[in-house]
Structure formats: structure tokens, C-alpha cells
Backbone:
């Protein structure tokens, strides 16, 4: 059975790079009828917070990514790590190192002066004497001194590391007994039955160390997939400046989970030139062997495009529910359907949609100066009055009814459509832009339309 995992360190919010590898891991487990488990790597007490763990769980909940079974917290597993440290010590595969801080610093400085790689020199590897007093030892693992460590990576192919270039007998337990990062990752991945590890390629250089741990304990290696980073359009590693990287900020900005997940699955993975993937399709088609070898490029336009697609395809009923999260309650508005149908064709985000709706439903308090100047040059007042009279006399309901009345004014007064359209738009919204005015009028109704026209005329007269 395929078991994958997501193993975040709760040092801050969940960022989209992490979410992407979580999604890949989730999809691969689902596709294989396997398990996707969650491990919180909270061993760094100074930098971890419960708040960050909660933020990660909240983001998962929003996106509908469910993990299997209980969450594993590394902070609760000291006894397990201690057991394996003891085992390695007993088997002579790890040893106590009594090197003092000063000695280590001196060693490092000498190596740097000689332009050598800084590494531990193995002083206590085969030490048999009496240890120096007053020093709490760290535990080091016996790493191979020569030869190669081969990472058979599902994305990168076989990556060979020369032991002498990258390894030394690294510390697996600090002087206070705390097990170290690469050690616990290997222990946990094995004990949790994880056999496919999909993670960012910033972890590739850790993998040889983790392999040393697996080998020392005689365990089979999982299959590794190291996913290239996400870059910005300038080809640099994605940073906060390139937009929000906190997953929950995407919710605030009005992106839907479907769009965000679809966006992320395409960052570094492809299936022909298909762009739109439902969750079902992602689960059916995702395969880590198709992960691209080069970095992927983050594009806000692409995300907006996908989001617009999903908004357009969301039922009005569900949109009403979603828009509540953006401060808009559309309970009994009788023209809800017309309004949402019109706006979902043009809104890129739910937030934008909520704002558009509010703009339409509320009588303008003020008028954009530039728009007034542009729309009210010429003689719009008689035109607006003529239209007002048509409204008063008629029974318009549908956008097409309003449109027909505008057409009548245009042909009777022998004017271009813009002569009525522009001032009417400013009267209705207080500014240029927005959806079709016949839709706006149909939504707010005849009385409110007449009121807004009268208000705009009065304001114009006061200008
Ligand atoms: N905790 C690590 C991180 O957040 C991930 C470890 C792993 O995936 O092996 O970067």
C-alpha cells in the first residue's frame, strides 16, 4: 500500500510551496487507494508554535484535504528516538563524542583557513580511552567515510553523492539528549510506514544523511521524489513579495479551494496540455513520475483565470453561501439570479464579486469626479429625464426590457448609445466600469433606478 506524508515544521503559516507537495502526496496516496498521513515536525521548541500547527490544520480543512489517521507529533516521540539512539550505540554504529565547543570551533577555523570543507574529524569515532571530564557528549552516527550514496529519485533520476564530500559523522543526539532533524525524519518515515516521500528539492541534500540512518538500522529506503521549487516570473525563488504565500491569504483574497488546488497541481506537474482538473481528475491522473524536472513559474494571471473559471461554474446557491464569507448576505433579493449570473461572468475572485454586488445594491453616496466630467459633458439631463419618463410609464422587468427603453430614447432623440449609456452608468454606480447597465437596472428595479437618476441629476445641478 502506498503511504505518503506531509511533514511540516510549524514555524509559521502554511505556504503554497508546502501545500503543493502536500497536494502531490495526497493525490498519489488517493490514486493508489493508499494513505496520506500528517506529521508535525515540532522538535524545534524555540521556533514552533501551536498557533502555526492550527493554521496548517485550518488550511487543510478549507481545502478539503483530509489526512488519514491520527496526526503524529514529533515532540511526543522522544522515547522512541532515544530507543534507536541506544540501539545504534549498543551496536557500535553510533558513538559518544566529547569534543568541546572550543575544540570544534578551532577545527572549523583551521579547515576554513585551509579552504577545506568544514566537517567533524572523527576524533571520537573509535575512542577507547577515558573521556574528558565535564563534557556532556553528543551522539554521532558512523557515516561512510568514502564511496557514494545514491539517491534514486523519482524526479531527478539517480543522484550520486560522494560520502567524503558531503558526509561526516553527524550528530544524531545533542548533549541534552534531543534527537536531531535528519535522524528523526528517517525514524518516523520508517515507523509510520511511509514508502513514498514527495517533498521539495531543498531537502535533497538532507537525503544522503537520512539514508545513512536507514542503512544503519537495516531499513528499506522509501521512494523519494524531490520536487523543484516554484519560481516567480523573474526566475527567482518565490518570496512573499510575489504575492501572498500564506495559503489562508488566498481565501481572504477570494480564491476558491478548487482553483487554488488546480493551480498548484499544474505548478510542476502536467498531463498533456490540460489546464482544468477537477479533484476527481487530479486523483485519477496524477503521477509523480510526470513531475517536471525544472522549476515551475508562478503566475497570478493563471490563478485568476482558473478562479474565474470555477466561479463561473459554481451554482448561484453555493455562491450565495460563499459570498457570506466576504461580507455579503444575499438572502431575499428577488433578482439574485440575474445579478449572480451577470457577475460570475466577470468576477475574478469572490471578494471582487462581493464588492461588485455591494456596489450595485447600494445607492451611490458620491460620484467619481472624472467619470462625471466625462459622462456629463454635453447635455445628458434631458436624455436622462426622457429615459426616466419611459421608466415611469413602462413596466420593465428583464434586462432586455430596460435595454428596449434605452433604445427608444436613442432613436427618438437621434443620439448615439453612449450618450445615454455613460451618464446612466454614472448615475447608477457613481463611476464608470461594472457590468451591463440593463442588468444593473433589472436587479435594482424600476423605482430604485428612477431614484438614482434623480439623485444624479440633482447632484449634477449642484456641481
Ligand atoms: N519539516 C520539513 C519542512 O517543513 C519537511 C521534512 C520532509 O518533508 O522530509 O521543510
Residues:
Amino acid at each position: 500500500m502506498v503511504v505518503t506524508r506531509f511533514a511540516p515544521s510549524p514555524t509559521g503559516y502554511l505556504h503554497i510551496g508546502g501545500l503543493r507537495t502536500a497536494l502531490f502526496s495526497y493525490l498519489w496516496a488517493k490514486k493508489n487507494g493508499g494513505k496520506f498521513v500528517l506529521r508535525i515536525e515540532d522538535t524545534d521548541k524555540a521556533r514552533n508554535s501551536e498557533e502555526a500547527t492550527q493554521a496548517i490544520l485550518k488550511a487543510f480543512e478549507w481545502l478539503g484535504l483530509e489526512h488519514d489517521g491520527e496526526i503524529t507529533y514529533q515532540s511526543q516521540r522522544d522515547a522512541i528516538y532515544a530507543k534507536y539512539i541506544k540501539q545504534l550505540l549498543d551496536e557500535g554504529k553510533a558513538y559518544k563524542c566529547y569534543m568541546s565547543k572550543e575544540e570544534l570551533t578551532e577545527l572549523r577555523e583551521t579547515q576554513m583557513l585551509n579552504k577545506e570543507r568544514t566537517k567533524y574529524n572523527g576524533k571520537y569515532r573509535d575512542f577507547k580511552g577515558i573521556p574528558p571530564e565535564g563534557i556532556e557528549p553528543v551522539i554521532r552516527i558512523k557515516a561512510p567515510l568514502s564511496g557514494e550514496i545514491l539517491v534514486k529519485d523519482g524526479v531527478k533520476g539517480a543522484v550520486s553523492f560522494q560520502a567524503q564530500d558531503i558526509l561526516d559523522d553527524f550528530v544524531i543526539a545533542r548533549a541534552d539528549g534531543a534527537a536531531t532533524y535528519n535522524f528523526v525524519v528517517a525514524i518516523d518515515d520508517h515507523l509510520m510506514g511511509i514508502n513514498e516521500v514527495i517533498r521539495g528539492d531543498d531537502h535533497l541534500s538532507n537525503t544522503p544523511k537520512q539514508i545513512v540512518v536507514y542503512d544503519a538500522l537495516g531499513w528499506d529506503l522509501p521512494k523519494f521524489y524531490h520536487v523543484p521549487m516554484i519560481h516567480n516570473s523573474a526566475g527567482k525563488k518565490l518570496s512573499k513579495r510575489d504575492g501572498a504565500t500564506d495559503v489562508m491569504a488566498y481565501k481572504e483574497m477570494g480564491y476558491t479551494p478548487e482553483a487554488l488546488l488546480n493551480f498548484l497541481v499544474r505548478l510542476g506537474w502536467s498531463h498533456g496540455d490540460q489546464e482544468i482538473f477537477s479533484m476527481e481528475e487530479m486523483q485519477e491522473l496524477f503521477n509523480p513520475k510526470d513531475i517536471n524536472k525544472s522549476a515551475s513559474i508562478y503566475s497570478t494571471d493563471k490563478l485568476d483565470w482558473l478562479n474565474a473559471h470555477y466561479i463561473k461554474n459554481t451554482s448561484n446557491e453555493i455562491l450565495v453561501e460563499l459570498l457570506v464569507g466576504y461580507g455579503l448576505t444575499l438572502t431575499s433579493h428577488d433578482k439574485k439570479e440575474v445579478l449572480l449570473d451577470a457577475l460570475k461572468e466577470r468576477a475574478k475572485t469572490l471578494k471582487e464579486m462581493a464588492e461588485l454586488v455591494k456596489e450595485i445594491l447600494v445607492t451611490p453616496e458620491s460620484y467619481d469626479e472624472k467619470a462625471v466630467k466625462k459622462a456629463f459633458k454635453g447635455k445628458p439631463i434631458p436624455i436622462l429625464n426622457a429615459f426616466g419618463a419611459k421608466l415611469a410609464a413602462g413596466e420593465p422587468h428583464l434586462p432586455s426590457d430596460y435595454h428596449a427603453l434605452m433604445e427608444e430614447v436613442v432613436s427618438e432623440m437621434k443620439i448615439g448609445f453612449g450618450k445615454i449609456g455613460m451618464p446612466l452608468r454614472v448615475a447608477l454606480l457613481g463611476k464608470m466600469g461594472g457590468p451591463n447597465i440593463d442588468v444593473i437596472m433589472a436587479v435594482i428595479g424600476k423605482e430604485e433606478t428612477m431614484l438614482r437618476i434623480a439623485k444624479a441629476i440633482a447632484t449634477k445641478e449642484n456641481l
About this structure: Residues 437-462 form the longest helix (26 residues). The chain has four domains: 1-71+228-313, 78-227, 316-355, 369-462.
